[in-house]
Design brief:
six-stranded antiparallel sheet, 3% helix, mainly beta, Jelly Rolls, seven-stranded antiparallel sheet, 2 helices, single chain
């Protein structure tokens, strides 16, 4: 069969193209179907695109993935920003929404591992069932905001103590270290009855309050607050006869905010001067709360 006769099978159609009906089965190899398209240099635009899970109806650039695999939504320059792995440009009243059911809980988590609480060392969560927004760190929930705007922190260091003696405690000859306390609330702050120390776990500003019930007239008495055994504040009452005896059953109170370092301790003493204090339950009490 002549070459001319072979070529006649592939003669152009009236449109100038080879008709596929004139090509024998298996006459074109895969290499001819998918060659390297080195001559294509223009970026094309699909005017309509849809596949399972994706439906693009945008009329402008909506998502950009740059050469570093950073993703921009409604921005073509995610690397203009500090955290640029995913950048969303939002107009006024725009933003990102996480949709959950009315009884479900959803999370935004910060992980540094793939097991245990390393998967959510930091987190923001919302419980639709209770309408509670939780901010967590260190693998747990720490701060909770409810629907009434009440903010609570169940792990904020605090302590509250009531007096625990059977009655009045007498002292003279030296400063009286107050150790007659019993706890009815404590988080983080520890108390030692052997030395009367209230030790704080972390640095910060602490609100310190003490109320001492005085059970002696005709005496000068002073309650003192000490930071690591150094007196930094005191409150006094002088009930000597020469100054006008107003009797017993009075209270000395002292409240202050103090900057403390981790493992600092607070103690309370009564200044030498003789007297009695009522350390029976419901008479004297103290409290400490970390503010910030």
């Amino acid at each position: 069969m002549s070459l001319a006769r072979n070529l006649s099978k592939f003669k152009p159609s009236s449109s100038g193209l080879v008709e596929t009906a004139d090509i024998a089965d298996d006459a074109v190899t895969t290499a001819k179907v998918n060659p390297a398209q080195t001559d294509i240099t223009q970026v094309g635009t699909l005017t309509s695109f849809a596949s399972t899970g994706i439906d693009d109806n945008a009329d402008a650039t909506s998502i950009t993935i740059d050469s570093s695999e950073n993703v921009g939504i409604k921005t073509t320059t995610p690397t203009n920003y500090y955290a640029d792995d995913l950048v969303v440009t939002a107009p006024d009243e725009g933003g990102i929404t996480v949709v959950g059911g009315t009884t479900e809980r959803n999370y935004l988590a910060f992980a540094d591992g793939t097991s245990g609480d390393a998967r959510y060392r930091g987190l923001i969560s919302y419980d639709h069932n209770t309408d509670l927004l939780t901010l967590g760190a260190g693998g747990g929930g720490s701060v909770v905001l409810d629907g009434n705007g009440i903010l609570t922190n169940s792990t904020q260091p605090s302590i509250a103590m009531d007096a625990t003696s059977a009655g009045a405690v007498s002292f003279s000859g030296s400063n009286k270290l107050i150790t007659e306390w019993t706890s009815f609330h404590t988080v983080g702050i520890t108390y030692s009855s052997s030395n009367g120390r209230f030790t704080v776990p972390t640095a910060g500003k602490y609100l310190i309050t003490v109320h001492i019930y005085l059970y002696q007239n005709d005496a000068f008495q002073r309650v003192q607050i000490l930071d690591n055994d150094s007196i930094f504040v005191h409150s006094s009452a002088d009930f000597n006869n020469s100054d006008g005896d107003i009797g017993q059953d009075n209270t000395l109170s002292c409240t202050i905010v103090r900057d403390l370092s981790a493992n600092d301790y607070i103690t309370f003493t009564m200044l030498d001067g003789g007297g009695r204090i009522m350390m029976q339950g419901g008479h004297s009490h103290m409290s400490m709360h970390k503010l910030s």
